[in-house]
Amino acid sequence: MTSFKKTSTVALLTALAGVALSGSAHAATDGVDGDADSAALGNHQKHVRVDLGARTQFIKSSGFDPFSEKDALTQVSLAASGVFWTQDAASLAAVIGFDYGETSARARSDQADLSLARFILAPELRYHLLRVLVLTAKVGPTLTRESAQLSGGGFGSDLMKTSWKFGVDATAGAAVELWGYAKGTTHRPRLWATAEGGYGWTAPMKLNLEPADGTTAPQRLVAPTLDDLSISGPLFRVTVALSYW
To answer: pTM of the full predicted structure?
Structure first.
């Protein structure tokens, strides 16, 4: 009987030790996976992002002078992007953007108004220097609706010209994650700040203005002569962005 009790006690202790060792090994594995998850990029990198900010372009075209007292145009900038490819710290995103802005000035004794609506569709290369710091580069075609108008007492009606022009934007910059959970597997939103600079080119538009009401003979005997409008020059854009996956 004593031998049986000793044997049972040894068996019980051995079983408990086995369970304890198994639990310790499992806990250690969980710790490694947890650390790896915290260090992984996850949806720090692969996500859908919406941006809102401002785009400012510096324009030296003489055709822009009648519409602005300064050589710069600021537009509200909206964009949406989604990452579709990742490889280690690098990724590619598809970006669709829209910029809108207006400017006005006095051209001689007339009021000159200009509005621009620009669309862009482009791939963006992103590289994570850090989990929360990303370098970006983007080149893509643009399509811009340019609407110019002159109004004043010397016209039978306002003079207008509206045209769609192709162009290209090329920019590089960085995005910084301002707020978000460390783990890359969380599905909660993240807040970013972005800044980029580069060059934007848009095909020139001839400012051969015509009466807005469709008449062919304005009261002014000589139509105003304006240089071609070229919306091209260095640009920078700053936005705040919200990402989610």
So the answer is: 0.78
